[in-house]
Amino acid sequence: MKITKQHKLLVYLLLVSCLLLLPFTVRAQVSIIVNHDVAENSISSSDIKSIFTNKLPKWDDGKKINIIILEDKEPTEHFLKQYIHKSHSQFRTYWLKQVFTGKAIMFKSVSTHDELLEKVSTTPGAIGFIDSAKIDKRVKVVTVSE
Amino acid sequence: MISKNLSIFTFGFFLLLFQHVCYAYEFNGLNINGFISQGYLHTNHNDYLADTKGGTFDFNELGLNLGYQASDSIRLGAQILSRNLGVDGNNKLTFGYAYGDYNLNRYLGVRLGKVRIPYGLYNQSRDVDMLRTSVFLPNAVYHDEFYTFFSAFYGVSIYGELPLGNVGSMEYEVYKGKSEEDDESRLVKNNVISLGGENGDLTAGDAYGGVLRWNTPINGLRFGYSYFYIDAKLVIDNVNIIESVVFDKVKLNPIQVLSAEFTWGDLVLASEFMRFRQDAYIDFSDNTFVPDIGTVITNSEGWYVSASYRYNELIEFGAGYSEFYENIDKKNGSNYAVDFRAWRKDITLSTRFDITDNWVVKAEYHIMDGAGWLPTPGLYSDANSDENIKQKWNMIALKTTFSF
């Protein structure tokens, strides 16, 4: 089959259409933050999964881990997919199951970045995750190891 | 007792009260969550789980969960539960669970009190409708007929999770205690009616067992094994001239379940296989003229495969197939007056709508073959008598749940 100018134009338009459909939103870099009373400076990715699925309820010094979640799809969705391997709805259902079978008390949730920083900084043993650009001195940032 | 009308009213009240996302309410460290459900069941033939032929609203749950973190290691929790499914529950207020939890570390914890039985993958959450796609858990494995025995026990359980390095982790829970007693349960009433007695008295005995769940290194893939033993005594009084029939030393000896679940993105695949042996020594109380029947042993079996898929934030779809056999030595029903009472096969199609984060509506259709373990004729109506019962039948289940 002969490739005509019309064919080339059609392919070009299709490529441009595909590019336009691609999401151009740049995903925020997510950091793990803790209360300053938490001794750990680094947490493995498997421990992050265990913490946020209620399988690791205490820090190494015996202090209760208190989870604080920002009620915001972004960066929550990104964090959950990367570390917990669950969608937002699966994560919520998982925690409701923990709560309604008596295995956990529901994590605390806040609605703004500032509330998140304030809650983590004032709750002993607290952990949360946040857009890296929003971090301030009220909280400690921990690194993630493999 | 909470009436059906009150239950529906309360549901409407909750809907009006909570129109926003809410994860829990907290008062001075006491965390409060709750749910309320109302369902409708309709079968074209046969009564199933309730007086379903022609339709019934006799299907609801209401739960209030209380949780309190007393220290870094000690948590107290209780669920005040009211449920109704046919003759079961009758909306009496009970504790779904009520226990203290001492967590030493990730490897070891102890629960003491009334604890949900960790049977299969989903038994501990069976009363909480919004945690699954379908209206009903597969009945071939999660028997509503034995709800009294399967729901919870009074005693102690030890639990934890052991890391297995490159091969994932192993969750475990072992327990020992005493099973639940409910003289008003369908289990008791079925026997009272089938024997023509007046009352039934169920005395709970030992309950013990355990569960292992292997979280494989493949994300979302897990396997489980459950072992569960209970014994009990059931006395049916005033059975004509023989005064009473005693099901002495009734043992579920044991119930075993193999489980597999794979979560891949928004798709969840699950399958479970259950087998249990029921031993019952049957005698006729003080009547010395009628010889005892002796020990009757029945081996039952059930399995299912299911899939659920979340299409978007609003809609989730589910489909499943299950088979149950009351006596695995007579799967073809050769020893039954009506052969299809030996099995029950169920094709289930489910749709779930998450109207808001707190409000779920479900619709489900069951295509049924067989009449294994249907309610005794007369418990609800005469639909399940040998003359009226049908092999092929269908059920529509509708349910809505509000939670906070």
Structure write-up:
The complex is a heterodimer of chains A (146) and B (404). By secondary structure, chain A is of the alpha/beta class. Helices cover 41% and strands 19% of the residues of chain A. Chain A has 5 helices and 6 strands, in the order H-E-E-H-E-H-H-E-H-E-E. In chain A, strands 2-6-1-5-3-4 form a 6-stranded mixed β-sheet, sandwiched between helices. Chain A is elongated. Chain A starts with a helix and ends with a strand. With 404 residues, chain B is mainly beta. Chain B has a 16-stranded antiparallel β-barrel with strand order 2-3-4-5-6-7-8-9-10-11-12-13-14-15-16-17. In chain B, a hairpin with a 2-residue loop joins strand 1 (25-27) and strand 2 (30-43). The longest helix of chain B has 14 residues, at 4-17. Chain B starts with a helix and ends with a strand. Residues 1-6 of chain B have low confidence and may be disordered. The interface between A and B is large, with 30 and 42 residues.
Give the overall shape of chain A, derived from the CA principal axes. elongated
Strand order of the main beta sheet of chain A, please?
2-6-1-5-3-4
Would you identify the regions of chain A where 5 or more consecutive residues have pLDDT less than 50? 21-26
> N- to C-terminal separation of chain A?
53 Å
Q: Averaging pLDDT over every residue of chain B, what do you get?
A: 88
* Cα-based radius of gyration of chain A, to the nearest Å: 21 Å
Spatial ordering of strands, largest sheet of chain B:
2-3-4-5-6-7-8-9-10-11-12-13-14-15-16-17
Structural class of chain A: alpha/beta
Strand content of chain A: 15-25%
Q: Sketch the major β-sheet of chain A.
A: 6 strands, mixed
Report the end-to-end length of chain B measured between terminal Cα atoms: 23 Å
* Number of strand elements of chain B: 17
Instruction: Name the shape of chain B in a single word.
Output: globular
Average pLDDT figure of chain A? 85
Secondary structure category of chain B: mainly beta
Helix content range of chain B? under 10%
Order of helices and strands of chain A: HEEHEHHEHEE
Regions with little confidence, pLDDT below 50 for 5+ residues of chain B: 1-6
Give the chain pair forming the largest contact, with residue counts: A-B, 30 and 42 residues
